[in-house]
């Protein structure tokens, strides 16, 4: 079964063709530019080897990929590849060192699973490329908080150690997995917590370790990590909507995509949705542990509340606390402190809508129409109710959390707003007393704003709008002429609300209560309490 990426094979480059659909960082090429992607090409080569019958094309793709690795041991980019052959490493902004991990993993697959299909000279060059990638990983030495790369790099290093006869790399890979496991067990979950994207990548890499590395100690660690990854997924799967409940440290989509749904259905035996086929790696690996598989078909109780503590250090006040509530039809998840980066889902809810995709509820900080990364959401939750407050961060970027951070710390905005957004067929927003509702299907989210909200010391207000299958309630912080926002010198920010999932509109609204002193806003509502600073500062402050 082939993983067929978009584009065609270009014999002049020995690579696939495609168009740049990058996320807006690392590559400086414009969106839609024609490119020759390195990672897609090597993945396709592995798939061709696995399918059989097209070894000539697979070998050509392998040759094309090997040609673009940096082999200079004195270069900062030693052992890595560019995203695209059309943009050399020196032209990127900046290069992505993760490509040593991503491409190296595929080279290990080829050398372990298909060595006899490679001519001896090409097999030797492939082993050299894998070794250089592994030494790049060794030199970079990412810490265990970088979940997917911490695992992937360890597996690449361990596999390279065995394949290249380099015991130092095997020992390094094994030790790095040991450290990652110890860190994860101490934290209570992956540091990149509950990520639909990266938990599954972690699962893929753990399965790769089980498949490619023979070392018994590495196998034992990988087996333990396999169980942890499935526990994270099972705890947050909401069978009623077929969605991955929040909060999520990193996510690329608001809804589960068809490929992820196919992976989980294949691994758990739960009903499939979306009609997609699982990728080849999922077909090769072990299933979900049998004690967790029933969780993907039904909740174990009519109502659940899961609270996970992801420790940051010795001070409990600095811990990250994840809360997820579920019943048969709806779920709501929050993290006590999360950013507004586009990949972070600090507040995320779903509920069932008959005959349509699940409703999606998100809280965002939107600048000029897209997510603004320089916000911090503080939350407290009990059941389907949450209390939220926004602060601004002085050490974050604009669209990315750090890659596009301005040198002077100032941003320009014509429009800036805190948004509670509902995506659903027939979504609608309406005023409700002193608050608002966001409704679709048989459920709604009630929004109870803080009565006296301010931005840079000036009063600001809330408004509601309904669009095509999307509705929102916004706290408009700024709207009008472009304004330079020097976050570190802005006046006080008071931006908060309470949020609850309900089956009917509240008969009365109750606004959060607030006390402000010593630069802190102390909020309370329905037994929940949140403390948020009023002046901008660093995320960790």
State the gist of this model.
With 541 residues, the protein is of the alpha+beta class. It has helices at residues 38-51, 55-66, 98-113, 120-140, 147-163, 167-187, 196-212, 216-236, 258-268, 280-284; strands spanning 9-10, 15-16, 18-19, 34-35, 237-238, 243-244, 303-310, 320-327, 330-335, 337-339, 347-351, 359-367, 370-371, 375-382, 385-392, 410-423, 428-432, 435-440, 443-449, 454-455, 458-459, 461-467, 470-486, 496-502, 513-517, 520-525, 528-533.
Describe the overall structure.
- The protein has helices at 38-51, 55-66, 98-113, 120-140, 147-163, 167-187, 196-212, 216-236, 258-268, 280-284, and strands spanning 9-10, 15-16, 18-19, 34-35, 237-238, 243-244, 303-310, 320-327, 330-335, 337-339, 347-351, 359-367, 370-371, 375-382, 385-392, 410-423, 428-432, 435-440, 443-449, 454-455, 458-459, 461-467, 470-486, 496-502, 513-517, 520-525, 528-533.
- By secondary structure, it is an alpha+beta fold.
- The chain has a domain at 329-533.
- The longest helix is centred in the N-terminal third of the chain and has 21 residues, at 120-140.
- The radius of gyration is 24 Å and the shape is globular.
- The mean pLDDT is 93.
* Multimerization status: single chain
| End-to-end gap | 50 Å
What does the radius of gyration come to? Answer: 24 Å
Helical residues, percent: 25-40%
Task: Tell me the structural class.
Answer: alpha+beta
**Total number of β-strand segments?**
27
Weakly predicted, low-confidence segments: none
